Amino acid sequence: MTLSPDEIIYRIGPWEVNATLLFTWVVMALLVGAAAIARRGFRVEPPIGRAQLVFEALVTFVLDQIRDVTRQEPRRYLPFAGTLFLFILTCNVLAVVPGFEPPTGSLSTTAALALAVFFAVPAFGISKLGLRGYLRTYLEPTPLMLPFTVLGEITRTLALAVRLFGNMMSNTMLVAILLLIAPLVFPMLMQGLGLLFGVVQAYIFTVLALVYIASGTTEAEKRTARGTGETA
Amino acid sequence: MTDLSLIAIASIATAGISVAIGAGLAAIAEGRAVAQALQSIAQQPDESGTISRTMFVGLAMIETSGIYCFVVALILIFANPFWGAVS
Fold first, then answer.
1. What structural domains does chain B harbor?
2. pLDDT tens digits, one per residue of B23-81
3. Who among A159, A170, A207 is closest to B56 (CB)?
């Protein structure tokens, strides 16, 4: 039994590629390919294809979630949050395909995604509030909290990575162990449960990323809103 | 009893205990959170979207501590840094 898909090595010609890398490429090709094929049939007039309906429903869902979580104009965050959600969702859902090792079950992938969030928070914050405004969010509500805020930035990134990794890895491992003990029906039930967990984890990862981004972009706004007597 | 078997006993026992405590307490906390959220949804069905989303975020936070225990247990069993210390 392998702990992570990093340890499974495939040979493609002269190169050695581990399962994480290979299946990340598969997911990327799938997403880009599906988008490239589907966009040919897109049209504005009413007779709308099924693919367009699916994509529109997905985009609307992500937009609604962003608007609800950040309470800001959602288009800004759509590329980042949508990419995170679609990539993790595809990885987690494809885990039920035999032979597919979900890349999200490797700490390398989840650490990379969490690092992307780690750097996206100051990027969005600075582009919205300016450097001074963003740095001031660290001093809210009092400068005494600065060490904890900085510590929180690091631990929440770690938690983001380890949560996704722990959930996906424990799921694949659970199925592998159940295959040894009770190979008839139970692994299938756990796979079904794994589908649910995978979707929920993709959702949670995206929502948490948005919560962190929102906390890095709204502090100053809230203060000005309070100053003008509006309710935030 | 050799040092190696002592390390094995300590690692396996600690792994089991840490997962037991971590999973149990996280489960109690998540159960309380979900019960409260369900009660809130029953009282205010219009706000169910906001309540369930906040609940999911909170559950993820609670679950993190349980997953930390799980990862510590996995490290103790599969990637124990002390195996190499004695041999």
1. 15-76 (1.20.20.10)
2. 999 999 999 999 999 999 999 999 888 888 888 888 888 887 888 888 888 888 877 88
3. A207
Mean pLDDT of A25-40: 89
The residue written with tokens 């210390």 in the block is: B85
Q: Which residues of B touch A (CB under 8 A)?
A: 49-50, 53, 56-57, 59-60, 63-64, 67-68, 70-71, 74, 78-79
| CB environment B41-70: b (16+ within 10 A), e (fewer) | beeeeeeeeebebbbbbbbbbbbbebbbbb
Supply the pLDDT for residue A113.
Answer: 94
Q: Does A107 touch chain B (CB under 8 A)?
A: no
ipTM more than 0.90? no
A159/B57 Cβ within 8 A: no
In this structure, the number of other CB atoms found within 10 A of the CB of residue A116 comes to 16
Whether A200 sits inside 8 A of B56 (CB atoms) is yes
Domain borders along chain A are: 5-227
